[in-house]
Specification:
α2 packs across α3. The chain has four helices and four strands; from the N terminus they run ααββαβαβ.
Length: 134
């Protein structure tokens, strides 16, 4: 009986650490920076220039609107999220707004409840989609 209880407890613990496939909602955070981005747009998105907050954008830059993206660390054992992961999601969003740059980019790190969202920590990249002169 004790052995059966130990096996049950072990399975319950291990299944709790498995990725949870929930229906996406407004609060969900994509785990893969390439999720939902067609292959042909990935190369174009990489060409979107990024200007960090405090960096001067070229003269004649036109701001189109705010854009933000999040990267998720889904397992506690994974390395920490990187700003690059968040940028890989930010650039395609800016491209969809017909931007060729993102200006005033900032990063914030936050924690989420890993049990309900399968996301232990997030990195959020925020900025303004913009068009810069060539």
């Amino acid at each position: 009986m004790l052995r059966a209880l130990m096996i049950f407890a072990g399975v319950a613990i291990l299944s709790g650490c498995a990725p949870f496939e929930a229906a996406p909602d407004a609060g969900s955070v994509p785990q893969d920076a390439r999720a939902g981005v067609p292959q042909d747009q990935r190369a174009a998105a990489k060409q979107v220039k990024v200007f960090a907050a405090g960096t001067q954008a070229p003269a004649g830059t036109t701001v189109l609107g705010a854009v933000d993206a999040q990267a998720c660390r889904s397992l506690l054992a994974n390395g920490s999220d990187s700003q690059a992961d968040a940028l890989q999601q930010l650039q395609p969003k800016a491209l969809k707004m017909t931007a060729n740059a993102v200006v005033n980019v900032t990063f914030n790190t936050g924690q989420k409840n890993g049990l309900s969202t399968d996301c232990w920590e997030t990195v959020t990249a925020s900025g303004s989609a913009a068009v810069t002169p060539n």
